[in-house]
């Protein structure tokens, strides 16, 4: 396997050409790099898929960071600062390495994350808004460490934010707040709520696929 700072799975498009578009995938807490492949492979088939594994083992899977519960329960948690910083750096380094390793077009890289992966995706977008052509953040939120930033270069970046009305892990209100902050920062935001818990249903997957089909070229 090609070496990146993070373990990963790479899936080439059927008709791979030089400088092809790609989607970088970040899984949720306790999952692994295989977990979201069915979601990524439902996207347009000209994409490279680079699905990254979080760095720390957890309950048979992996996690991007431990939780800071000092503000209350799970529904008010934040990423552990030092571990979050490390994961953000590892994701950025892995994306850079993947561009070279798999001959990706650096101007056509999308980022798709679920739960902790969505939180990491949104923070990554705020840190390097010119790196990603689009972002899909499902059942996540914008962490407090990044919520007050005013990133340059975010104007018009397409972002899809999905939430579940029955989500008891990351309440819908946290995803909605992230969408509002993204709008204020200048992103082109699509926000949708689904009658689901903490998971991706068929309606959400269909909307994500349509979003990427619209914005990936």
What is the number of independent domains? Answer: 1
Strand order of the largest sheet: 1-3-2-8-9-10-11
User: Fraction of residues in helices?
Assistant: 25-40%
Assigned CATH class: Alpha Beta
Which overall shape is indicated by the principal axes computed on the Cα atoms?
Answer: globular
What is the β-strand count?
A: 11
CATH architecture descriptor name: 3-Layer(aba) Sandwich
The CATH superfamily is known as Alpha/Beta hydrolase fold, catalytic domain
Report the order of strands and helices.
EEHEEEEEHEHEHEHEH
CATH topology: Rossmann fold
Features:
single chain, 217 residues, alpha/beta, Rossmann fold, seven-stranded mixed β-sheet, two-stranded antiparallel sheet, 6 helices, 26% strand, globular
Structure summarized in a few sentences:
By secondary structure, this protein is α/β, with parallel strands linked by helices. 32% of the residues lie in helices and 26% in strands.
Verbal overview:
The protein starts with 7 loop residues before the first strand and ends with a helix. The longest helix is centred in the middle third of the chain and has 22 residues, at 81-102. It has one domain (8-215): Rossmann fold, CATH 3.40.50. The chain has a seven-stranded mixed sheet, sandwiched between helices. It has a two-stranded antiparallel sheet with strand order 4-5. It has a two-stranded antiparallel sheet with strand order 6-7. The model has no long low-confidence stretch (mean pLDDT 93). β8, α3 (116-127) and β9 (134-138) form a beta-alpha-beta unit. 32% of the residues lie in helices and 26% in strands. It is globular and about 50 Å long. The chain is α/β, with parallel strands linked by helices.
């Amino acid at each position: 396997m090609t070496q990146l700072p993070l373990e990963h799975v790479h899936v080439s498009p059927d008709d791979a050409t030089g400088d092809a578009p790609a989607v970088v995938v970040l899984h949720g807490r306790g999952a692994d790099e295989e977990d979201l492949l069915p979601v990524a492979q439902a996207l347009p088939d000209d994409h490279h898929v680079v699905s990254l594994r979080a760095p720390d083992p957890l309950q048979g899977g992996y996690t991007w960071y431990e939780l800071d519960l000092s503000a209350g329960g799970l529904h008010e948690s934040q990423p552990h600062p030092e571990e979050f910083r490390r994961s953000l750096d590892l994701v950025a380094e892995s994306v850079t390495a993947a561009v070279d390793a798999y001959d990706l077009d650096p101007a056509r890289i999308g980022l798709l994350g679920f739960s902790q992966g969505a939180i990491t995706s949104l923070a990554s977008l705020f840190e390097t808004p010119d790196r990603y052509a689009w972002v899909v953040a499902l059942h996540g939120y914008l962490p407090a460490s990044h919520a007050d930033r005013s990133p340059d270069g975010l104007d018009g970046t397409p972002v899809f934010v999905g939430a579940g009305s029955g989500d008891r892990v990351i309440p819908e209100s946290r995803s909605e707040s992230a969408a509002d902050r993204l709008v204020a920062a200048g992103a082109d935001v699509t926000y949708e709520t689904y009658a689901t818990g903490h998971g991706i249903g068929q309606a959400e997957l269909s909307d994500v696929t349509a979003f990427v089909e619209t914005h990936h070229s």
